Structure formats: C-alpha cells, structure tokens
Amino acid sequence: MNIKLARAGLFSLAIALGATAQAATPAATTAAADTAAQAIEAKMLTWRRDFHQHPELGNAEVRSAKIIADHLKKLGMKVRTGVAKTGVVGVLEGGRPGPTVALRADMDALPVKENLGLPFESKATGTYRGQTVPVMHACGHDTHMAILMATAEILAGMKKDLPGKVVFLFQPAEEGPSDFEAGTGQTWGAKAMVEQGALADPKPDAIFGLHVFSGMETGTLAWRAGPLMASADSYSVTVTGRQTHGALPWRGVDPVVASAQIINGLQTIVSRQLDISKEPAIVSVGQIHGGVRYNIIPDEVVFEGTLRAFDEGMREDMHKRVAQTSASIAEASGAKAETKVTKIYDVTSNDPALTAKMRPTLVRVAGAKPWTDNVQKSTGAEDFSELSRVAPSLFLFLGISKPGEEKTAAANHSPFFYVDEAGLIQGVRALTHLTVDYLHGVDAPKP
Ligand SMILES: [Zn+2]
Ligand SMILES: [Zn+2]
After folding, report:
1. Fewer CB atoms < 10 Å away: N or C end of the chain?
2. 77 shares its domain with 200
3. Same domain, 246 and 288
C-alpha cells in the first residue's frame, strides 16, 4: 500500500465515523414535509400565476423581490434585499446546531411576447437594453420563485427541529442583465450575488437548485453526476482587409472571402482538433456583418458566435484555437483577424459525492413518478454554475409537460412555453427533502 492509499483509507474512515455520529432524518419529519407540501400547493399556484402575470426582466425584478422579501420576513427570517440590485437572501436558523444548506431560485423573465391565451397571461412590457419589449416568464422562473417560497414556508414550519441553517437565495438576471452595458464588467445575477456576499455568512456546505424543462413528463425528476449543462461563451472575430472595387479584387485584400474560409476552418476545431470522446463541444456563428454595396469589397467583416463545452480544460483550449485558427487563415490572404472571447456561463456540474449522497432522497421523492439519475446533458447553460464555486452543489431538472405532449411541447424561451402546474409540487418536495436529509447528515429513512 502506498502512502497516498493509506491516507485515503484514513480519510474515508473519518467520514464513516462522522456519519454514524449523526442521527438519520426521522420518518415523521419527511412525512410532515409531504403533508405540508400538499397543504401549500394551492397557495403556491396563486403565487406562480401572479408572478407569471407580472414578469420582470433581469435586474428589474423589483415587484417580485418585494413579494419574496415580505414572505420571508413574515416567516421570521433575517432578510437582505437589494443584493446585486434586486436579489433577496433569507436565512432560516434551525433550533439545533448543524450544517448550512443554500437553496436557489432565479427571478427574471425574458423579452418574449406571450402567445398562450392563459387567463393569467402576461401583457407586461419592460426595457431591454434601451428598447421597450414585451416580457414573459418563458423560462419558468415564475415557478422557481413560487416553489422556493413554498419550500421556505414548509421549512420555517419545522424550524425548531432543524439541525442547521438554510439560506434562501433569490437571484436576479440569470438570463443576463436587461440593462447590460458591454465593457463595464457587469455580470450575470448569480456571480453578482456571490460577489456581494450572499453566500458568505453563513457559508453553505451544500447548494441545491432546480429548473423546470418542457419536453419531460410532468413531475419527472432528472439529474446526473458531473457535467449537466454546458459552459456558454460568446466570441467575435474582426477580419480586416483593404477596401477595393468588386471588379478589381487584386487591388485590395478581401475580408469577405477570408471570413468564409475562417468560418469553415472554425468547424474543424470540434470535428478534428478536440477530443470529443471526452466531452462534446460546439462552435457556432450567429451573425456576420460586412460591406454596404454589391460591388465594393469592404475593409472589414465582423462575425460573432457562441462556444459550448462540458469540460473547463476543453473550454479554455477552444478559446485559444478559435483565435489561432482565425488569425492563421486570415494571414494566408494578407488579412488580419482579431478574436475577443467573453466568458458568460461556466459548466454546470453536479458534485459527484453530493449527488451520490442525495440519490436515495431523490429516488424516494420521485416515488412512482418518472426519474433518472443519468439525464442527457443539456447544451443550454445556467449561472447556477457560479454557486458551485462556493460549495458542492446539485442541480435538478423538473418535468412540466403533460404526458403524451413531451415531444410536441414548445421549448423554454418559446412564446408557447407552457407549464403543467401539476409538476410543481415535486419541486417543493425535492428541495424540502434534500434540505432536511442533508441537515440530518445521513441518507433518508426508507418509506
Ligand atoms: Zn432560460
Ligand atoms: Zn431558465
């Protein structure tokens, strides 16, 4: 046995001793949590519909934040407001000492015009980067707020017996600030909340969060250990040539043809250069701008796109390769290419040890409803990833599409995005049970 192994052995022995020293969650506690979840369901749906009817864009969640802060105060919590503009942090102190769990919900809506014909349809408008736009909770953050408010009320009701603390984190601007100004260092909501100390005191030992997704049957709980959602970065490439007549290309340097070659060349980063047997990756171009007239070869072309990865090393590597491929291909024709990459979201990755520890809890919560601990990775991104830097974390997907409609349901961000509200109670149960079981330190009791 080498020294490393001997150390690992001692370490796991310490964990085992630590675990047996704590008592399991009493079965009566989990049963009481479920009874309370049922009792609060109707109230939660009223909150959700109200939020849905009054959506607010990232960093403008003033009304939502006030409702949440008032609720948490009424539950007897210490509440901080105005964190990272509109964020709300509530701390519930259990009656007994123990670890700290943080639970997170995002509050922002999207510049989307709702087209569902619901009785509580949004007619709201907001200001998105200087323009007046229609606003809709097209990503379901209205449900996240209502689910976490209900969870807070249930946990506050069992405060006396809770061994530890619970931090309720309601964050702005998960989809990005609606008042974003490039170059100001302004960040997305989760990062700003962490920077302003939302998780500094008390510092959590574990963080849980969830997201509703269409395309999964109502009430489905889905998760996986390790990378769950991609990193998402934007990049722009400025290709500079020399302007000339379209009939005399040899008198200048053509940035249009160079850009076409670069864009094709960028596709070889994923297909030829990255080890995609490790993790998948994506390089996409979303916009190209250049030129003003059909017979003038312009001085400059600018194109922009998005980069997705599931591994932080591959992500960094991809950034370098985009710059290098662009510069080298441009150079071949005498043009110049300058690349700027802006990091937006890190990889959302579930801590393997925490995920394994909480698996029995999630399986019990799922009960007869569908669940999977090996859900397909999503190439979408989440700023929940910022919270994972503070403590081990676990992020879940919750299904909200009626059985039989999973394949045809409109995706999140669509004007037709629809939430089957019957699934939301599973979200409340999941967050409540995860918290209670984690605070009690060991796996949940058998039902
Ligand atoms: Zn979204
Ligand atoms: Zn979302």
Report:
1. N
2. yes
3. yes
Q: What is the number of the ligand closest to the CA of 397? A: 2
Q: Judge if 310 and 182 occupy the same domain.
A: no
pLDDT at 18 (0 to 100): 40
C-beta separation of 397 from 318 below 8 A: no
Fill in the DSSP letter of residue 387. G
pLDDT digits (tens, 9 = 90+) for 183-225: 787 889 999 999 999 999 999 999 999 999 999 999 999 999 9
Tokens read off for 124:
């709201």
Contact 29, 436 (CB under 8 A): yes
How far, in Å, is the centroid of ligand 1 from the Cα of 306?
16
CA dist., res. 428 & res. 147, Å (int):
5
Say yes or no: 356 and 239 in one domain.
no
Q: Which domain holds residue 356?
A: 24-229+348-440
DSSP 3-state assignment of 178? coil
Among all bound ligands, the one having the nearest atom to the CA of 141 is 2
Q: Please tell me whether residues 47 and 156 are part of one structural domain.
A: yes
- The verdict on 108 and 200 lying in the same domain is yes
| Entry field: residues in the chain | 447
pLDDT at 1: 36
Work out the percent of the chain whose per-residue pLDDT is above 90: 89
Co-location of 213 and 242 in the same domain = no
The band of 180, judged by pLDDT with boundaries at 50, 70 and 90, is confident
Output the CA 271–ligand 1 centroid distance in Å.
Answer: 28
Ligand 2 centre and the CA of 142: distance in Å?
Answer: 10
CA dihedral 208, 214, 220, 222 (to 10 degrees): -50
Q: Decide if pLDDT at 4 tops 60.
A: no
Q: Which ligand is nearest to the CA of 413?
A: 1
Q: Which ligand is located closest to the Cα atom of residue 232?
A: 1
Joined tokens for residue 434: 């995860």
- pLDDT: which is higher, 19 or 161: 161
CA of 175 to the centre of ligand 1 (A): 6
Examine the fold and report which residue of 309, 325, 345 is the final residue of a domain before the chain moves on. 345
Centre of ligand 2 to C-alpha 57, Å, is: 12
SS3 25: coil
Segment 48-72 shows an average pLDDT of 98
Ligand 1 centroid to Cα of residue 157, in Å, is: 32
The rounded distance, in Å, linking the Cα atoms of 61 and 177 is 11
For residue 98, report the distance from its CA to the centre of ligand 2, in Å. 31
Mean pLDDT is lowest, of 10-19, 100-109, 201-210, for 10-19
Residue 244: the pLDDT is 98
CATH number at residue 243: 3.30.70.360
Please compute the mean of the pLDDT values over residues 286-299 and round it to a whole number: 97
Active site residues: 345, 421
